């Protein structure tokens, strides 16, 4: 697989350049933002000696799916990734004392990272490196979602939402049956950073991205199409909609009834 084959730069020296080519605002943002050491911490220490697979959800839809369809209902995070300067590195913050960046779980021999708080682009690499250097998994699966207007199709009218595509590293050999993300589409941000880390470090990595029109129950349940059985993960197919609805942000709930 060439570095730009599916719209994702997997060359560690080209990743930032690729992002700047596709989003000139990154260069302006980097120039305006002072250099900050994010000082990311895993607290308390995450015991990862028995972890075989890292399952990472980037975004609300994927995180709610994992909570409602995979993790036991009473399972609590064993650790958090935190940052004392969260107001600097996050796109949005909910308060000066809100330092949690990501939730970390251990479920059997699977490490789970739920990341629903978008980072400013210049801190994404530090976040992914902290996560991957802590876990050191043998295999990685990433689930994420993107708004449908970012998907480029030759015939937009033929695209039905939610719409799934995948990216994978050269060391991932299984056939998941999900179509590859076609050029000129590309991904950036936390999900792309983790997959790039996998490629650079010769890890089997699989990313499935869902293009959705809004955060709702159907967007969450669309992740049931992810072939997680290939990775030894059992997905609960019958999850009450009320359970999902309770986890949706309030602004999304208001959209369900309009």
Feature tags:
Rossmann fold, 8-stranded mixed sheet, alpha/beta, disordered N terminus
Task: Summarize the entry for a quick read.
This protein has 258 residues and is α/β, with parallel strands linked by helices. An eight-stranded mixed β-sheet has the order 1-3-4-5-2-6-8-7.
The helix content is 25-40%
Q: Quote the beta fraction.
A: 15-25%
Globally, the shape reads globular
Distance between the termini: 45 Å
Low-pLDDT parts are: 1-34, 253-258
| CATH domain class name | Alpha Beta
Mean pLDDT, all residues: 82
Radius of gyration: 18 Å
CATH architecture: 3-Layer(aba) Sandwich
Task: Provide the domain count.
Answer: 1
Give a topology summary.
Blueprint: H1 15-22, H2 25-32, E1 41-43, E2 53-58, H3 60-69, E3 79-82, H4 86-89, E4 100-107, E5 110-115, H5 124-135, E6 139-147, E7 163-168, H6 190-200, E8 205-212, H7 217-221, H8 241-247, H9 250-256
Parallel strand pairs: 2-5, 2-6, 6-8
Antiparallel strand pairs: 1-3, 3-4, 4-5, 7-8
Helix pairs in contact: 5-6
Describe this structure in words.
- This protein is α/β, with parallel strands linked by helices.
- Helix content is 28%, strand content 19%.
- It contains nine helices and eight strands.
- The protein starts with 14 loop residues before the first helix and ends with a helix.
